[in-house]
Amino acid sequence: MEVGMKVGIVRFPGSNCDADVYRAVTDGLGERATYLWHKSTDLEGVDVVVLPGGFSYGDYLRAGAIARFSPIMREVIDFARGGGLTLGICNGFQVLCEAHLLPGALVRNRNLRFRCHDVGLRVENAGTPFTSAYGEGDLLHIPIAHGEGQFVAEASTLDELEAENRVVFRYVDRRGQATDAANPNGSARNIAGIVNAEGNILGLMPHPERHSLSVLGNTDGLAVFQSLLAAVSRERSHPGDRRTDAAPPGAREFAAGAVAGAGVSS
Amino acid sequence: MSRVWSVDVRVTPREGILDPAGETIRRALGNLGYEGVHSVRAGRLIRLEVEADGPEAAVASTEKMCEQLIANPIIEDYVVRVREG
Which value does ipTM take for this structure? Predict the structure, then answer.
């Protein structure tokens, strides 16, 4: 039986974090990754689709609005709607919202500044295929780099997200408190990342791939990819079983940043 | 007869959506001495040349474009208008 996973990274004109995701998957995890060109209509049998960060189509009109109609997106939307694991980071999150695969929208940062620095994140739901290698309440340091990352949605949508435990990451301070000062962009309820109702689509503004190799000084983000690998392996051994409560042994150490060699696979 | 109509789409942030750009303009106006500007909302104007059988058809097809791409109804309102002449 085939083991491991193959991650497809979509390249739009203006994507600029595609190579970072590639390195996180290949060097960080020792898994396979391939680039998917925006004009392609073939997902090449990948297990996971990543929409990386960047400024697709120059952010013209609205961030993600044009990319959402790329030829590859028809395949990505089918894949995601069919339960395929789909991760949108930063611009990828914006594309997922524009494609209505996730609720809400991302608008200009409250203070109008492009924010490029590490933020504190709290793992709010460690029961998703993207976070099973973390523990609930884990505090992470992950970089952000965006000008339009303010998550907005109707109050009823926000309530629904909270009630269904679909807020996966929240901006917090050093003590893990979701304060206004810890909110870099004015996002509603300090929301940094959400999943769809089925739990197979995650969008987040911070960049886990930028903190996924020890040479980068921090591996807090690697567990996102570890989690995906665990989910793909689980799906292969138990097709249709989407439970995520069985994190692989050793995965927690990644979340705790205790493993120095980021290439070590648990 | 089909002809080309000049159509304006005015897109503005929806009521209740924070508009930091508009707010910054308002503050700058205050600094310049323009008192009494209570609110500024910054949107965009998109001007299209649309071939259609009549102004109503031009508006109808442009509204469809707005729903699909030009505006994001979650955060924006839009008004479609055929220009005179």
Answer: 0.85
